[in-house]
């Protein structure tokens, strides 16, 4: 069973910050944008070390006289005393000298505490830069606090100091502007598409601006870019409406959520007193994250939502798997096998990180049987308990190994799956240990043996003994089974040995059943005289019946309708109603109009059936070439065609169901 690790969108790991030095040439401006001298509140973050100016590395927006808004990855790990906030339109270093413009010293750098540097998707990629002196001559740009959803599809204005050539990484440090459409939304991030224009390296931390009431509002913060060529695909921005709690609290204007009900739920209030916009959802596990990403097929908006749904620990486990896989399994044909072998600890931790559900393994199998796509299959798996998943994993692994030779050939594969892993099947679906002869399953269910061993109560059509039935279904009531007796399929009494059948019947067992199991064949013979009750004129008297010698005692001992014939004297009183009809007619008259013809004395019972080859033969029977039954117990004389009939093994459990389940989960991680 091949498995694979979903490769990360390589683009999502590329934050838009420029490398540290030489920043004047490697600051990775807005590609395809226009030089911009306006938007005075949008400035650059620049680096100065040892009295030498290094140039800009990110973009920031003045949102308060003492605070600038930027991306967390721009300032994480940096020193505030080496960072400057530049206001102007040209931040390029020229021989280590500052360009014209205003440089404001920085007091503190405050990245979001939940941001993880180097993460695949930059959740919480927001930071505040506290300035050492107030900027009172530039109007700050306010935040958008209303929901961003109504802006989907609209164009936003992007301003930044990044490069204008993502490949050559040239042109950084100059302010540029472009308009890009808002394409997709997550809970904390949104996606902007490129049409020849895009944000790029050095634009990180810069604003996505929306015109409102003759002014502007900040709706997003540039976080990362994606696409095959650098800065050619699109970009990801942090939603400021989702991060307003952190921004306000950091600036000292927001309330501590621990002091009231500021958050949507109590669980969303963090130790820092800030509401977490993702804190009210039950976090998905690492295994669920992999499954979710697999279903995205590279869609960036979908990928963002998968990461937002996962918990912090699950994201960390996934990052560990990715890091190990990048080093150990690059180019491996089966990444799942490679990860299991070379990265067992992070891989195992990720696969085991799945919050348990309530369904047992039998419920999991039943759920999988109704699935037709991967999403449904994994939802079934998520709903199962940890023990149920372990049992199912063991069964799946056993079948994958034991039946690999039959891959692509459904009939033998299904047969193998149902018989090769009995212990694993029973661990997944413990037997009911019901009585095959009935009494334990109740109405609407019948006890049957599974091909992998054990007895189970299966949903049944509940047809009564003797009723016509469909041998491709579990048709008969508990204690009965559908089998062809030569006159068509009908429900017959189940037996596990001679003692389960009436006198005169034999228990015809199925040779390839997982335990002794069959149906009672032949006719009942209550008095044991060798004559079927249906044709015996005295079914409770062993001294009377067809072929018996007359006892000359005034009784019709041989059931021919005449009394004491051949006894001499006055004996031989004739039954006038049958006297002229002959012995066979007399017998029929005695037995009733619906009686079968008399059984020849030399009739030989047979218990072997021909392979089912008619239109109603099930796939399982066709593959098996028919079913052989063997006789057990003492029988009575029978008319031609009474015994026998082939058992349709398709009823003996789940061959077709297993095929569906396996197909839905073969690629299970």
Feature tags:
669 residues, alpha+beta, Thrombin, subunit H, 5 domains, six-stranded antiparallel beta barrel, 23% helix, rod-shaped
For the record, the CATH class of the largest domain is Mainly Beta
Tell the overall outline: rod-shaped
Radius of gyration: 41 Å
Helix/strand-derived category reads: alpha+beta
Strand order of the largest sheet: 8-9-10-13-12-11
Poorly predicted ranges: 1-29, 574-669
The CATH topology of the largest domain turns out to be Thrombin, subunit H
Distance between the termini: 9 Å
CATH superfamily of the largest domain, by name, is: Trypsin-like serine proteases
Proportion of helical residues: 10-25%
Roughly what fraction of the amino acids lie in strands?
15-25%
Average pLDDT level:
77
Q: Which architecture name of the largest domain does CATH use?
A: Beta Barrel
Biggest β-sheet strands, sense, barrel? 6 strands, antiparallel, barrel
Per DSSP E runs of 2 or more residues, the count of β-strands stands at 20
The total of helices stands at: 16
How would you describe what is shown here?
This protein has 669 residues and is of the alpha+beta class. The chain folds into 5 domains: 7-258, Trypsin-like serine proteases (Thrombin, subunit H, Beta Barrel); 286-351, no CATH class; 361-429 and 656-665, no CATH class; 445-522 and 605-647, no CATH class; 523-603, no CATH class. 23% of the residues lie in helices and 19% in strands. It contains 16 helices and 20 strands. The longest helix has 17 residues, at 312-328.
């Amino acid at each position: 069973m091949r498995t694979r690790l979903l490769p990360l969108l390589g683009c999502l790991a590329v934050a838009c910050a420029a490398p540290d030095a030489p920043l004047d040439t490697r600051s990775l401006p807005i590609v395809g944008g226009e030089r911009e001298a306006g938007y005075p509140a949008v400035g650059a973050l620049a680096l100065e070390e040892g009295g030498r100016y290094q140039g800009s590395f990110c973009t920031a927006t003045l949102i308060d006289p003492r605070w600038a808004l930027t991306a967390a990855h721009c300032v994480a790990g940096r020193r505030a005393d080496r960072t400057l906030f530049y206001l102007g339109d040209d931040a390029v270093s020229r021989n280590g000298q500052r360009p014209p413009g205003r440089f404001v010293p920085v007091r503190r750098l405050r990245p979001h505490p939940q941001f993880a540097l180097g993460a695949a998707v930059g959740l919480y990629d927001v930071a505040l830069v506290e300035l050492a002196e107030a900027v009172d001559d530039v109007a700050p740009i306010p935040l958008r606090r209303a929901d961003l959803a109504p802006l989907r599809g609209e164009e936003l204005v992007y301003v930044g100091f990044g490069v204008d050539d993502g490949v050559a990484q040239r042109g950084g440090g100059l302010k540029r502007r472009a308009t890009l459409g808002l394409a997709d939304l997550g809970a904390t991030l949104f996606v902007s598409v490129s049409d020849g224009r895009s944000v790029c390296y050095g634009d990180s931390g810069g604003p996505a601006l929306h015109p409102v009431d003759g002014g502007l509002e900040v709706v997003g913060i540039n976080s990362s870019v994606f696409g095959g060529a650098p800065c050619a695909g699109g970009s990801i921005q942090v939603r400021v409406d989702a991060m307003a709690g952190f921004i306000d609290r950091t600036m000292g204007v927001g309330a501590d959520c621990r002091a009231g009900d500021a958050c949507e739920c109590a669980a969303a209030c963090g130790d820092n007193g800030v509401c977490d916009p993702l804190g009210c959802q039950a976090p998905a596990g690492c295994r669920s994250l992999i499954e979710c990403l697999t279903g995205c097929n590279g869609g960036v908006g979908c990928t963002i939502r998968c990461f937002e749904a996962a918990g912090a620990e699950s994201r960390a486990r996934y990052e560990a798997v990715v890091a190990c896989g990048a080093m150990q399994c690059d180019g491996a044909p089966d990444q799942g096998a490679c990860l299991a072998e070379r990265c067992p600890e992070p891989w195992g931790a990720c696969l085991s990180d799945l919050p348990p559900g309530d369904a047992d393994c039998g419920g999991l199998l039943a759920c999988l049987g109704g699935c037709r796509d991967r999403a449904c299959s994994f939802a079934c798996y998520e709903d199962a308990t940890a023990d149920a998943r372990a049992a199912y994993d063991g069964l799946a692994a056993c079948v994958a190994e034991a039946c690999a030779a039959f891959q692509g050939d459904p009939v033998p594969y299904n047969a193998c799956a149902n018989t090769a892993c009995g212990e694993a099947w029973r661990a997944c679906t413990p037997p009911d240990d019901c009585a095959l002869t009935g009494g334990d399953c109740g109405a609407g269910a019948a006890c049957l043996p599974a091909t992998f061993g054990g007895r189970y109560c299966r949903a049944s059509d509940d047809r009564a003994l003797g009723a016509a039935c469909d041998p491709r279904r579990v048709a008969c009531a508990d204690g009965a089974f559908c089998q062809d007796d030569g006159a068509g399929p009908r429900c017959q009494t189940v037996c596990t040995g001679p003692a389960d059948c009436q006198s005169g019947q034999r228990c015809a067992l199925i040779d390839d059943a997982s335990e002794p199991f069959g149906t009672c064949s032949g006719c009942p013979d209550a008095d044991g005289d060798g004559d079927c009750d249906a044709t015996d004129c005295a079914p409770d008297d062993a001294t009377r019946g067809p072929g018996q010698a007359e006892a000359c005692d005034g009784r019709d001992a041989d059931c021919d309708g005449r009394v004491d014939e051949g006894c001499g004297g006055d004996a031989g009183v004739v039954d006038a109603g049958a006297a002229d009809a002959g012995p066979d007619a007399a017998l029929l008259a005695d037995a009733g109009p619906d009686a079968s013809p008399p059984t020849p004395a030399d009739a030989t019972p047979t218990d072997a059936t021909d392979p089912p080859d008619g239109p109603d033969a099930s796939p399982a029977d066709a593959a098996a070439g028919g079913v052989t039954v063997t006789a057990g117990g003492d029988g009575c004389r029978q008319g031609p065609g009474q015994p026998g009939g082939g058992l349709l093994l398709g009823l003996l459990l789940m061959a077709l169901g297993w095929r569906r389940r396996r197909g839905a989960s073969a690629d299970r991680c």
